[in-house]
Automatic annotation (TrEMBL):
Keywords: Purine biosynthesis, Transferase
Record-level Gene Ontology MF annotations: phosphoribosylglycinamide formyltransferase activity
The protein's role, per its UniProt record: Catalyzes the transfer of a formyl group from 10-formyltetrahydrofolate to 5-phospho-ribosyl-glycinamide (GAR), producing 5-phospho-ribosyl-N-formylglycinamide (FGAR) and tetrahydrofolate.
Keyword Membrane: no
This protein's name: Phosphoribosylglycinamide formyltransferase
Pathway: Purine metabolism; IMP biosynthesis via de novo pathway; N(2)-formyl-N(1)-(5-phospho-D-ribosyl)glycinamide from N(1)-(5-phospho-D-ribosyl)glycinamide (10-formyl THF route): step 1/1
The UniProt record lists the keyword Calcium: no
Length: 203
């Protein structure tokens, strides 16, 4: 499969996926890395891996649909089969989501459906949760609301700061995201009637 990874920052999940492709674990290639922010470290990771990258930055006052059109055009140029959102900090409009229905994943740092949106680690701490984690899900028009494919849990310790917790969760993100991409590339995953299906069974 031809994979595009969309980022806005550090790109540690991008790195995990690049490594898994390199090692032959994922039967696919990252053919494009697209960032909405210039000069982020994820772009360096792309060039170090010899992968084409582009910055698609929003123009002042640009409507969401207009931006998403430009993003779509960029992805179409690369004939992408799969879109992987890896810390891409923009909400995507419905036409864009529809263009990649069943072919786009996101990773979110919480045990969905808990804590959609931002500041998930602090929110888990504030709630006194004893466990926290991350989720990979198919992207639908609902923010962090698409069907979950895989989650990883981590314990929350009393002395944890949000940074401690984020680091523990990140380690798990780097395990589960490449695994889901691998399964997709093997043709084992699909979204049917709004549900995630693996090997023919609803997850
Ligand atoms: C991750 O915590 C991911 O769950 C969230 O954004 C962060 C991206 O980190 N959506 P990185 O850029 O992959 O290091």
């Amino acid at each position: 499969a031809r994979i595009a990874v969309l980022i806005s920052g550090n790109g540690s999940n991008l790195q995990a996926i690049l490594d898994a492709c390199q090692e032959g674990e994922i039967q696919g290639d990252v053919v494009a890395v697209i960032s909405n922010k210039a000069e982020v470290y994820g772009l360096t990771r792309a060039s170090d891996a010899g992968v084409a990258s582009a910055v698609v930055a929003a123009q002042p006052g640009e409507a969401r649909e207009a931006y998403d059109q430009r993003l779509l055009a960029e992805l179409q140029q690369h004939q992408v089969d799969l879109v992987v959102l890896a810390g891409f900090m923009r909400i995507l409009s419905e036409p864009f989501v529809e263009a990649f229905e069943g072919r786009m994943f996101n990773i979110h740092p919480s045990l969905l459906p808990k804590y959609t949106g931002l500041h998930t680690h602090q929110r888990a701490l504030d709630a006194g949760d004893s466990e926290h984690g991350c989720s990979v899900h198919f992207v639908t028009a609902e923010l962090d609301g698409g069907p979950v494919v895989l989650q990883a849990k981590v314990p929350v310790f009393e002395e944890d700061s949000a940074e401690d917790l984020a680091e523990r969760v990140h380690t798990q993100e780097h395990r589960i995201y490449p695994l889901v991409v691998k399964w997709f590339c093997e043709g084992r995953l699909a979204m049917q009637q709004g549900q995630a299906v693996m090997d023919g069974s609803v997850l």
